[in-house]
């Protein structure tokens, strides 16, 4: 494909993604499946522009001077320049409407591209690519580290796998994956984690198809490990969703004891079924939609309860760059109130002497330590565990442990362990 045609393809893709309804990576995959003529280099160049436009979506209004989010076409043109695909003059020349090239630039588009080259000092939120309104929340968490963390958030998330200890050990799986030609190493923090270099299609590979590994960020693995679930215990996963942490808990329990996966949304629970089958634990894991009768029936029945709470997803911006735009301080405050209510409900299931683990993939203190402090203020029978002693090499604070892509190389995560008085 000619460079101008690649640019046109990137713009077309951005328009499809902007139409919404589907995750960006799915739209990109489908687009290329239907365009077999696009070679490897074409795909890399087109996807490079598209991902750049998505990653910089928050700051494009300032950079282009449009004030509002630019249309997909201008976003693509600007991303081509910002990513170094071509300079503004070349983009202007390519856009002649001939063959597969984009239509000629409008006056406004030409002015917007010219602004990209102006010598202006971007404000912190543009440099860090976050909504201006979230600046105070991010500064509260990261302080002087904020630019470093946001640079790490702009990178690509690594591919991490969790070894299913029910079926295999980490060393054996590392050998197996290396034998299949993958470049892999053990994760630094999770004893069941494997980090894969590059992007690999795992679906067809035997260790994945046969349930010896699952895709799971190292931070998520630590959340499950913080539950200290052991064979023979009773454990509840209160916000189980599609079961990422449930699977990890089942493996720690070696399929012995009782594991109850709960969620307010029965449809999400349904989605965990194929994963349970692949991991060989579909008979072991009980599933139930939350309701008040169940909460009353199961009160005080569990050694450990995990609350992997719904949150702003601000720790996952590497994977979901567009989630930046959905978070606002008001939304964060609403979520914090919901998280407090969920913790209160879940706490009722914990046995005296049992453990309550609260986790989010949010980096905002408002959804993390503040929620824990509020809960501990309401429930004198729970106390925060010693977070410094939870994982070797990870220094926790009094109310929990926060992970981020710059410090630990994981997604942004928070976890707190609270023990109920015996
Ligand atoms: C972060 S997701 C869970 C992800 C899941 N634990 C995993 O590892 O794949 C949060 C889940 O909380 C559920 N949820 C939302 N409100 C809830 C509530 N009030 N009580 C229980 N679960 C709730 C959502 O349906 C969603 O599945």
Brief rundown of the structure:
With 422 residues, the protein is an alpha/beta fold.
Number of domains: 3
The radius of gyration computed from the alpha-carbon positions, rounded to a whole number of angstroms, is: 23 Å
**Mean pLDDT, rounded to whole units?**
94
Helix percentage range: 40-55%
Give the CATH H-level superfamily of the largest domain.
Vaccinia Virus protein VP39
Specify the CATH architecture of the largest domain.
3-Layer(aba) Sandwich
Which hetero compounds are present in the coordinates?
S-adenosylmethionine
Family: Belongs to the class I-like SAM-binding methyltransferase superfamily. RsmB/NOP family.
Domain SAM-dependent MTase RsmB/NOP-type: 149-421
Active site: 361 (nucleophile)
Protein name: rRNA cytosine-C5-methylase
What features would you describe in this structure?
By secondary structure, the chain is of the alpha/beta class. It has 3 domains: 118 residues; 57 residues, 2-Layer Sandwich (Alpha-Beta Plaits), CATH 3.30.70.1170; 203 residues, Rossmann fold (3-Layer(aba) Sandwich), CATH 3.40.50. Helices cover 42% and strands 15% of the residues. The chain is built from 20 helices and 12 strands. Strands 5, 6, 7, 8, 9, 10, 11 and 12 form an 8-stranded mixed β-sheet that branches. Strands 2-3-1-4 form a 4-stranded antiparallel β-sheet. Helix 1 packs across helix 3. The longest helix has 19 residues. It is globular and about 75 Å long. It starts with a helix and ends with a strand. The mean pLDDT is 94. The structure holds S-adenosylmethionine. S-adenosylmethionine (SAM) binds next to helix 14. The site of S-adenosylmethionine has 16 residues, from helix 14.
